[in-house]
Design a protein that fits this description.
11 strands; disordered N terminus; TIM Barrel; 324 residues; binds zinc ion; three-stranded parallel beta sheet
């Protein structure tokens, strides 16, 4: 418990969240997609009374340049054992959000000028999100994904090539899943979460079972922003806020590769704050354990491509000009 508490306090300080952390009980409402019966969600505990008002977390609630940030009201740690599912559009097992609580999620990145703009908007409000990254895109811009992770956001996977996994042979779908985890792990250069979202929110029973066996949490959505359809930033904000008003809370699905989403985000965060909504950050209890055979495969595929540990490919830094 001590470890979790310490981590919570660090998170609290870093995320500019209010002192009072709410403790929510995970409400198990049915089987998980993978059939695991046990509750998987561990709410971050409130600071113990003996910490007193002078505890370190109490002093570090500022957000640089923003006296009244949206912040993060609560950090929840997910035990992904058995592959719990989140997002009521598909998985109705865990109703863990309180009224007016939201989880911000962004799919399909990372891309320059898009993900980076989303990051800046989140940072300005000292709030946190989950990024479900596409492996092939992450392979091209590992430094952006590294920045996402370094900023304290949660990074999950969204397949290698963004294909509909429900329509392909299982072995191919498995490869799409595993390669994306391996590439993302390589891009981040550190731990990433065993969190996964299916492209087009379409799964097959086999892939769902596979993720359950791999202890990967599966995400759908409660509030689909439909931002992939384009439109003006103001219309997007209006649509999300209207949907939130109707549902009262939820996991919001957006795309960090959409320019109007990045443009809309500062206003959306402002309206969330004004509307009394609170952001919950979801983190993983343990990082994804990538499979060595897929690590090797992506290593071969990505020879010469940038990694999180170097800004330039090795062959552009170290070049043989004489001999073999
Ligand atoms: Zn997607």
């Amino acid at each position: 418990m001590r470890t979790i508490l310490t981590k919570t306090l660090i998170a609290t300080a870093a995320l500019c969240s209010p002192l009072a952390l709410h403790v929510a009980q995970a409400q198990q409402m049915g089987p998980t997609p993978g059939g695991a019966p046990q509750p998987q969600l561990e709410a971050a505990p409130a600071p113990s009374p003996q910490m007193g008002p002078e505890a370190p977390a109490a002093k570090q609630t500022e957000c640089p340049g923003n006296p009244n940030p949206l912040g993060v009201s609560r950090v929840v740690e997910i035990d992904t054992t058995g592959g719990p599912g989140f997002g009521f559009q598909h998985y109705k097992s865990y109703d863990f959000l309180n009224p007016k609580e939201v989880v911000l999620t962004f799919d399909d990145g990372p891309l320059p000028n898009r993900t980076t703009a989303v990051l800046a908007a989140l940072n300005a409000e000292c709030t946190k999100a989950i990024f479900f990254s596409v492996g092939k895109v992450a392979a091209g811009y590992p430094e952006i994904l590294r920045d996402v992770a370094k900023a304290g956001h949660t990074v999950g996977a969204h397949t290698m090539l963004h294909k509909d996994l429900s329509k392909m042979p299982f072995e191919e779908a498995k490869s799409e899943i595993e390669k994306s985890f391996s590439v993302i792990h390589r891009a981040v250069g550190g731990p990433s979460a065993p969190f996964f979202r299916f492209p087009f929110l379409r799964h097959s029973p086999e892939t769902l079972k596979y993720l359950a066996d791999r202890n990967v949490a599966v995400f759908s959505t409660d509030i689909d922003s439909f931002d992939f359809k384009g439109g003006k930033p103001a219309a997007l904000v209006k649509r999300i806020m209207a949907s939130l008003q109707k549902h009262g809370k939820g996991i919001i699905l957006m795309h960090d590769i959409q320019p109007h989403t990045a443009a809309a985000l500062p206003e959306l965060l402002k309206q969330l704050k004004a509307g009394g909504y609170k952001v919950v950050q979801m983190t993983a209890k343990a990082p994804i354990q990538t499979l060595p055979e897929y690590d090797e495969l992506v290593q071969k595929d990505m020879q010469g491509m940038p990694t999180a540990l170097s800004d330039r490919p090795m062959n552009s830094v170290v070049k043989t000009i004489s001999g073999q």
